[in-house]
Amino acid sequence: MSRFFTSKYSNLIPYTPGEQPKDRKFVKLNTNESPFATPECAVEAAKAAAENAQLYSDPECTYFRQALARRFDVDYDMTIAVNGSDEILNFAFMAFCDDNCPALFPDISYGFYPVFANLSHIPYKTFPLREDFTVDIEPYKNTWGTVVIANPTAPTGIALSLEEIEEIVASNPDRVVIVDEAYVDFGTQSAVPLVKKYSNLLVTQTFSKSRSMAGARLGFGIAQKELIADLNTLRYSTNPYNVNSLTLAMGKAVLENDEITAERCQVIADNREWTKGELARLGFTFTPSKANFIFARHPEISGGDIYTRLREKGVLVRHFTAERICEYNRITVGSREQMETLIKALEEILEEK
Length: 353
Hints:
- This protein has helices spanning 40-50, 62-72, 85-96, 112-119, 162-170, 225-238, 245-256, 258-281, 303-312, 336-352, and strands spanning 27-28, 79-82, 103-106, 124-127, 146-150, 177-180, 201-206, 219-223, 285-286, 293-297, 315-316, 318-319, 329-332.
- It is an alpha/beta fold and 353 residues long.
- It has two domains: 18-37 and 259-352, Aspartate Aminotransferase, domain 1; 40-256, Aspartate Aminotransferase, domain 2.
- The protein has a seven-stranded mixed sheet with strand order 2-8-7-6-5-3-4, sandwiched between helices.
- Helix 4 links the parallel strand 3 (103-106) and strand 4 (124-127).
- The longest helix has 24 residues, at 258-281.
- It starts with 26 loop residues before the first strand and ends with a helix.
């Protein structure tokens, strides 16, 4: 860092995004992107919106939020549009956490949570996952801080039931509970219906995974209007034009053609289950993922070695170095052809061993 960098961020450890290779072509199974191209309806909507790109985007994100409200059967003022769900998560940490209300989340979860906390100098406490990587909900009930739960969680893909989520929310009437549903469309019940019942619940989702729009950067939040107003205070104090016109048009088109998303999610879920069967045949064990990825390990080859050898064969997966999970690799579920390539590469690795 330079000598001009402020000391208040001198100890900040930034989030490390998944590799986006440029030097060679890989079967890319490392960042949980969709294997499907952006829907044609969204591409056409972006082309139309581009004709007026000389104008600022609508700071209210009106047409997109109207479509969002219709899709999730909530009031318009219960919605907010953001530049990827990371933005709303950052706003939520800023809005609902402080020295008297720390952030509370699992010790193994989305790696951005501690970064958000440290960026805003917010204290936080983590609670260990059980030995099987499931979330013990008891530490998050009747608690003293803002609860942040990814459901399904990352990087394991394990999901809490809607009943368990409601237990957490109901037990904390004076604290906000944030449910990060980046992967919810691949096999988990959304907590959005609970928003009408509980004033302390914020549900966030993204267009990056199930809706094939990772590069467009679009996310949203749903909560009762008072929480949304809090988040908008920060949004308007940061960047009121946070979502560009092309992305808003694309998002609206995707929401209005939701059957495309549902069909694609089913294909990915089917490919996930097929891949689990093949991995089990090769001796791998894995968590019961309900996301668009599989968290797997092999008893005879280290996670790091599998990652390296797959990369040499042109297949990228995500490897983590934290002690409890370093023997695992997170494998994005792509097309059947991509998953067949993965399995073939793993067979070769095992034969070489």
